[in-house]
Amino acid sequence: EAQVTQNPRYLITVTGKKLTVTCSQNMNHEYMSWYRQDPGLGLRQIYYSMNVEVTDKGDVPEGYKVSRKEKRNFPLILESPSPNQTSLYFCASSLVGGRETQYFGPGTRLLVL
Amino acid sequence: GQNIDQPTEMTATEGAIVQINCTYQTSGFNGLFWYQQHAGEAPTFLSYNVLDGLEEKGRFSSFLSRSKGYSYLLLKELQMKDSASYLCAVRNQAGTALIFGKGTTLSVSS
C-alpha cells in the first residue's frame, strides 16, 4: 500500500530533550516536506527536500533540523525542544511538478512541557 | 507577500449544495489544490486546478480564475461525512512549497 508513515504518533517530552520524528514514504517520491499545524494558523512549512541531500528552509524553520540521506526517509529533528514547538506535525511527499499532489502522513502530535 | 483567505466556518444541511471560496495573493502561482481534513487526521487531496475553469470530480467541483486570484470548491448532495475542514493551497512558482489557507470548517447537519 502506497503510504507515508510517521513515528511516533504521539509524544510528550520536556524542554531541552532532543527528539527525532521519523518520516518514511514507499512511493519513490523525490519531494518531501514537513509542516506544523496550529489552531488559527493553518499548515505552515518547516523544511522541504527536493531530492536526496537537497534540503531547504520553509516558512518556520527555527528550532528544527532535517536530513535526507535516503530517498524514502526525511526525519525531523528538534535539538532542544521548547513549549512553542507543541504542535501537530505532518510529513508529506510527492512527485515533482504537474498535477502531482502531496500525500500526507498521519501526523505526530507533540507536547513539550 | 503571500495571503490566502477562506471563510473560517460554514454550515449546511444534508442534501444541499455548498460553495467554499478561496482568494489568494501570492508572489507566484503553479497550481491550486483543495484538501479535505477531518479532525485530527491528515489532509487528503480533493482537486487540482492550474488553468482557468471548472474541474468536476463526482460530488466535488473546483473552479479557478487566475486573473481574479479566486477559486471555489463546490460540494453537492452533502452528506454528514462531509463535515470536515477544507483547505485551499497554492503551489509556489518553483514548485517547492504549498501555501495553505487557514481552512474552512464545514458542519453538515441533518
Number of strands of chain A: 11
User: Which bin fits the share of residues in helices of chain A?
Assistant: under 10%
- The averaged pLDDT of chain B comes out at 95
Order of helices and strands of chain A: EEEEEEEEEEE
The helix tally of chain B amounts to 0
Q: Major sheet of chain B: size, sense and barrel closure?
A: 6 strands, mixed
What's the structural blueprint in terms of helices and strands?
The complex is a heterodimer of chains A (113) and B (110).
Chain A: E1 4-7, E2 10-13, E3 19-25, E4 31-38, E5 42-51, E6 54-57, E7 65-66, E8 76-78, E9 87-94, E10 103-104, E11 108-112
Parallel strand pairs in A: 2-11
Antiparallel strand pairs in A: 1-3, 3-8, 4-5, 4-9, 5-6, 7-8, 9-10, 9-11
Chain B: E1 3-5, E2 9-13, E3 18-25, E4 32-37, E5 44-49, E6 53-57, E7 60-65, E8 70-75, E9 84-91, E10 98-100, E11 104-109
Parallel strand pairs in B: 2-11
Antiparallel strand pairs in B: 1-3, 3-8, 4-5, 4-9, 6-7, 7-8, 9-10, 9-11
Write a brief caption for the model.
The complex is a heterodimer of chains A (113) and B (110). With 113 residues, chain A is mostly beta strands. In chain A, 0% of the residues lie in helices and 50% in strands.
Give a verbal description of the structure.
The complex is a heterodimer of chains A (113) and B (110). Chain A is an all-beta fold and 113 residues long. Chain A has strands at residues 4-7, 10-13, 19-25, 31-38, 42-51, 54-57, 65-66, 76-78, 87-94, 103-104, 108-112. Chain A has no helices and 11 strands. In chain A, strands 2, 4, 5, 6, 9, 10 and 11 form a 7-stranded mixed β-sheet that branches. The relative contact order of chain A is 0.33. By secondary structure, chain B is an all-beta fold. Helices cover 0% and strands 56% of the residues of chain B. In chain B, strands 2, 4, 5, 9, 10 and 11 form a 6-stranded mixed β-sheet that branches. A 5-stranded antiparallel β-sheet of chain B has the order 1-3-8-7-6, with no helix packed on it. In chain B, a hairpin with a 6-residue loop joins strand 9 (84-91) and strand 10 (98-100). Chain B starts with a strand and ends with a strand. The chains are: A mainly beta (113), B mainly beta (110). The A-B interface holds A 33, 35, 40-45, 48, 50, 56, 58-59, 90, 96-97, 99, 101-107 and B 31, 33, 40-45, 48, 50, 87, 89, 95-103.
